[in-house]
Amino acid sequence: MFVYTVRTGDSLFAISQKFDVPVDTLRSVNGLAATNIVTGQALLVTSDVYTVQPGDSLWTISRMAYVPLSALRQANPTINPDQLSIGQKINLPTIERRVATHFSYSQLRTPALDQSVISNNAPYLTYIALFETHFNWNGDLSPLNDNAAVLAAWRGRVTPVLTVTNLTAAGFNSALVQRVLNTPSVQQTLIDNMISMATSRGYGGINIDFEGVLPADRNAFVMFLQALKQRTEAANLDLSIAVPAKTNDDVPWVRGYDYAAIGAIVDQFFIMAYDWHYSGSEPGATAPIQLVRETLEFAASLMDRNKIIMGTPFTAMTGRFRFPLRIRVGRSRIKQQLIWQ
């Protein structure tokens, strides 16, 4: 298989003809509800044979197929790499399968919808973090209508994870986190409640999504996670965390997250590798590839890289452009909705 980047003038039908793959297969593999595609969109093509296109070389084909150039040459011993012709067939070597952890969030809505979403995605997941329960000033947790979702996850051989946040009606609240981290009685209540909810409702893990942890609470946050880890281990629960992306430890607004210390504690380290640009910022990429790469390299230098899970955005931003140049960033939308437009 290989990844094809849509070019100007392409259609899904034309791509299916180029590579002798049915349109329905392209749609199914790439999760396309319609046949609309846009220039620059990456499509997975499930074929073991690549048809040479204008401008191709063995090197570019090896990049598209994610195989070493030497392996591609070995799979095509009779081909002269300097004399490729348009329409020529190139055999793609089999890619070595790797075991990866797939960790996804799912917002709880209704039992029927939760069951459907989880059942449809279960074959591709290892963990599913059900979003969310939040705590108050006393360390009490909000109720969840999660029974159907938890059962659907286990039936699909996916581990359901309880997501605990500092969300309020006004958004993520740093003051709530401060109170928990610096008030021992409230912290103990919250930890007790998390363990009780996770075990009594059949979860396999707890995910901490405390956003806006202040630099002053950096060490206290680590100590909280250490205390929680002792309890999750005793209860046979995994402990995971969602953290904001950063390329070094000197980014002021995310100093509250000690990558190295946190990475040594948790079982899964989920990096929210997105939101470099958002509805309140200037226009730009949600997840610039170079910054994503630098974030992963930074994290991998500080902890066991097998714990790291790269979060990818499921949304994109709409925008309005006017001349003289005035740019207004609109609301977040599901990527496929934007492609349909």
UniProtKB/TrEMBL annotation:
EC number(s) stated in the UniProt entry for this protein? 3.2.1.-
Q: Where in this chain does the record put each LysM domain?
A: 2-45, 48-92
Q: Where are the transmembrane segments?
A: none
GO terms (BP aspect): carbohydrate metabolic process
Tell me the ranges covered by the GH18 domain, including all copies. 61-341
Q: Which UniProt keywords apply?
A: Glycosidase, Hydrolase
Keyword Ubl conjugation recorded: no
Class in the EC hierarchy, top level: hydrolase
Matches recorded under SUPFAM superfamilies: (Trans)glycosidases (SSF51445), LysM domain (SSF54106)
**This protein's superkingdom?**
Bacteria
InterPro entries (alphabetical): Chitinase_II/V-like_cat, GH, Glyco_hydro18_cat, LysM, LysM_dom_sf
Q: Which Pfam families does the entry mention?
A: Glyco_hydro_18, LysM
Molecular function GO labels: chitin binding; hydrolase activity, acting on glycosyl bonds
Does the keyword section mention Transcription?
no
- Record's protein name: Spore peptidoglycan hydrolase
Query: What is the source species?
Result: Sporolactobacillus inulinus
